Amino acid sequence: MHIYFNVNQYTNMISLLRSLLLAISGFCLFVHPIQSQSLQHVNLVDPFWGVEGGNVFPGACLPFSMMRVGPDAEFPTPTSGYSSTKPIVGFSHTHLSGTGGGGRYGNILLTPTVGSLLLENRPSLARANEYAKPGYYSTTLQRKDGDVHAELTSTHKTALHKYQFYTWNKNQDSLIANVLIDVSHMISRNPKDNVVDGSITILSPTKAEGWGKFKGGWGGELPYQIFFSLLVDKPTFSSGTWTKFGAAIDSTSSSVSGKGVGGFFRFKLAQKEEVKVKVAISYLSTAQAETNLNQEMKDWDFEKVRNQAAAVWAERLGKIQVKGGSPELQSMFYSALYHTMIMPTDVTGENPKWESKEPHFWEHYCIWDVFRCLMPLHTLIYPEQQRRIIRGLLDIYKNKGWLPDAWVAGDYADIQGGTNADVVLADALVKNLGGFDKNLAFEAMLKNADGTSWNYKRVGRNAYYQKLGYCPENVVCGTSMTLEYSYNDFCMAQAAKILGKNNVAKSYLDKSLNYRKLFNPEVGFFWSKDSLGKWKENFTPKFTRPDHWNGPHFYEGNAYHYAAYAPHDMRGLINLYGQKQFEILLDSIFKYEKVDVGNEPSFLTPYAYHWLGRPDKSAGAVRGLLKKDFKPGRRGLPGQDDSGALSSWYIWGMLGLYPVAGQDFYLLCSPSFKEASLSLENGKAFTMQATNPSAANIYVQSATLNGQAFTKSWISHAEISRGGTLKLVMGSKPSAFGKNSFPPSLTN
Questions:
Q1: Is the CB of residue 127 less than 8 Å from the CB of residue 140?
Q2: DSSP state for residue 120 in the 8-state scheme
Q3: pLDDT tens for residues 553-594?
Q4: For a surface tag, which of 198, 267, 382, 451 has the fewest beta carbons within 10 Å of its beta carbon?
Q5: Span 3-315 CATH architecture
Q6: C-alpha dist (Å) from residue 402 to 338, 348, 444, 475
């Protein structure tokens, strides 16, 4: 840890005084929202919501953009590169959001400093007045030689930095300001080991270009290469390069290559004078990076770029309009909606692996995280985006041979759970999303189901499941894998039925009941057996190893978390337990907090009461989790946000709807807002109105859809797509609503 991070009482007092003076003197710009009624939802977003623990990225970006420019804290950091307390070493241009595992990206790091060029002085002594809104980030970096107020904004492939330099010496009229460029920086557990190569060339007193090649971190094993083009808005008096991690910068060479390389620009400035820096990235070449810069960042008008970014976010966030609820709840809601659009990364036209006119996305991190809640949300309110995602997945299949679950930096990464793209494709087919090749989708799903995988941890399925109908105990996470493969089979059956392949549909409907093979009636849970069908001894519903994501029998969960996982056959699952026993099990799960809504296997569990005819109990469970596990502030999420997956669960819970991904219906639950209106692609709106919603009035008493009595505890996608108004009368006590109308299930 840098010596300046362990500050003493004196330094803390100085930092506090600086912050006070900074605010009074007006150095900290744009600490207030942009004043515009059309940007009301942008102003409600708190990009810092969930940064600690949720690993959310707080910097500047556009929806799904290549450019995600933001602060990187001193090593080690979460995968977002951010920490609320550690010194900031600079601002890099590529980031993840909400992920776990080994970090990636954090490429092309810029560090503005005052005075000396020592790399060891890069970490800030402290920071002040940190502020962010969608498309914008700012903070003041404080160091003993001088402070820098930094502001960042971006377009899809470019970033614009604005740095204001000053010291606290009243007798000093001018200063030396620096912009350091670290080509070799990355967010990783082993950053120095994961740099393969790099290069930087200072082309003029105002221009530089270069590239870096990196490997490692969670995901694919192939190295990726990123190129950049950079301009500053005023000439330097000195520039050069450097070649060693942590070394003094004393080279005036205009070009350098290798590991641990970087460059610098130096300026002679008056106090409070600004320097702006444009940076563009590309995954193809430095020439393409320069083209991106010229196309997307034509001038130096920072406010113009910031306002354009805000306008893009305003349009996206405005797809859902909510009324009622506290300002705090509204802020959390729109912050969550914002989170769902940070990843994956749209690299269309920048795919270095093959030429294609189809959309292409990196950082599917992973589909297992987002197929349940996030992708169904996008299908409903951002359908064109979801079509592009699906076309990109199918293009990977055409060019690489298999659908991915995780696709990171142009390479397959580890599958989590089953063949999860099957659920995504089935969801699109049953909801008639359109805009992609249905026959190609069926072909890709069929290969997942029947093809011989070269590595089932990366593509396709485990051969044991294809042979036995279940994965035995020697397969890591084989029990949960079996449950998920069974649901993938159901999704395969739906695709076959839609395409008129009825014999295939019948075959896969039968296979979708394979989950029953691992239900052990003696212990009342799913469990593991060997390849001969003998149950493994010493059953326990608890975790049995500290790295629980590695099983041994359940992926990122235990027997409690997967107890209610048969989304296609919930009534059949209940029959395995016995109806009363299943209700007792669910009650005990919530009473003794055996559910973990901070992780995906538990997402469906609180809604399982619907299939018992007890949507009132679902309402109680969901409302309890929303209140207990989601809070305002930097630690407001109960787990890693996983590319917005956790945030999307929160959105559905607040709306009072829940999608059963891969099927064409939504469960009705308990709205937290007086009104929520969803803008649909056909120009219509679907509006949910709740009478008297409150912390006490969480139970639906009665409902009408477009003025007609509505008695189901679920609503179809077609009913929502036609638009209209669903009115729910809420009350403080359970009612008979939905008790005689079970949601769809393969068997009853």
A1: yes
A2: G
A3: 999 999 999 999 999 999 999 999 999 999 999 999 999 999
A4: 451
A5: Distorted Sandwich (2.70)
A6: 31, 19, 7, 21
